[in-house]
Amino acid sequence: MADFTAGGIYALPSKPRSIGDHDFDERIRTLVEDWGCNRSSDLIREMIVTALKMGRENITTADLKLTNRALRELRYAARVFAPYAAYKKVVVFGSARTRPGDPSFAAAEEFARKMVALDYMIITGGGDGIMGAAQRGAGREKSFGLNIRLPFEQKANEVIDGDEKLINFNYFFTRKLNFVKETHAVALFPGGFGTMDECFEVLTLMQTGKGRIFPLVLIDSPGGNYWRTWFAFLSDYLLKVGMIGETDFTFFKMTDNIDGAIAEIVRFYKNFVSYRWVGKRMVVRMNKQLSAAAIEKMNAEFSDILLQGRIEQSAALPEEKNEPELASLPRLILTPDQRHYGRIRQLIDAVNDLSE
To answer: Which of 60, 66, 117, 355 has the least CB density, counted as fewest CB within 10 Å?
Structure first.
């Protein structure tokens, strides 16, 4: 699974932290070695150091419980997703109140069925409504359910209930992290506060560069105006008063056509594979090289976001050695302004369009 921060996690300091006592540091190192933590042992030691420091500091029991539970949830979810890392996945969001017979219910079921036929897996919140419709379309084998424990019980839908790929979360923040961490695209159907929350969180992560850019499709029922009404607020108010920019609209596509939504996701990965940051340089991995003419066109079209130099084709950089499975792919290397991620989304589109 690609780093969902597009290199931000890899850039974090890797020097092991000390407990402040050499003898204790050695005891922790020995404990980690004796337990057989051979991979990323320095990170395991650092987590132990953090836990021990929390034990000595004036931290409330409530905060300790929150930290402990969050870590357990993240660990369990990572273990569930790990065997399926080779599959691309699409998160489907939408109302839990949508009933069978509603056009959006049928659209979600059809969308999931067609994405699975393209060898994608489907992730939902595990409940009923749009979530249940999508999992009905995907089938149990190709489904993940990320359920949330609520004061009023949200029971898992009948497709995913009891499956090993159903994960129950106590916290929304750990649940939402796994949605964006594990997916390659997001499909949003009409919904309430939760759907709006998920929509704007994904947009915020892409707009600020805190999460990698991926396709976001907003799917209405045929002839519906749910997303057009939502877009009117963005364009008639947020844009006009300067709270968002014109290029922020590049992060999503609205449609009432299922095949159009699927085409948007498939097109995004036509030649583009992934990207990551190495310092201030952006490294774009591709399935195949672009022509010299295509590179010239990209340099002309995106000169406004280049802080220095040009867009150049390259082999893998030494800093990418921790991703050997991507080492053979051709790259684009550039140093762009990191304030305008909408333009970076347009650059990714060009990588796909100019590969023809």
So the answer is: 60
Any alpha helices (H) in 183-332, and if so which ranges? 193-208, 226-233, 258-268, 292-301
What single-letter amino acid sits at 340? H
Please give the DSSP secondary-structure letter assigned to residue 119.
T
**Distance between CA atoms of 88 and 244, rounded to whole angstroms?**
30
Residue that has been written with the tokens 């407990």 in this structure? 19
Query: Residues with Cβ < 8 Å from 215, sequence gap 6 or more?
Result: 184, 185, 186, 253, 264, 265, 268
**Residue 292 CA neighbour count, 13 Å, CB half:** 0
Under 8 Å between Cβ of 112 and 131? no
Quote the pTM value. 0.94
Cα first-last separation, the chain = 27
Question: In a 3-state reduction of DSSP, which class is residue 277?
Answer: strand
> What is the amino acid identity at position 60?
T
> For residue 192, how many C-alpha atoms fall within 13 Å in the half-sphere facing its CB?
5
User: What tens digit of pLDDT does each residue of 309-344 get?
Assistant: 999 999 999 999 988 999 999 999 999 999 999 999
User: What are the tokens at 222?
Assistant: 């045929």
Q: How far is residue 287's CA from residue 296's CA, in Å, rounded to a whole number? A: 19
Confidence of residue 155 (pLDDT cuts 50, 70, 90): confident
Rg over alpha carbons for the chain, rounded to the nearest Å, is: 22
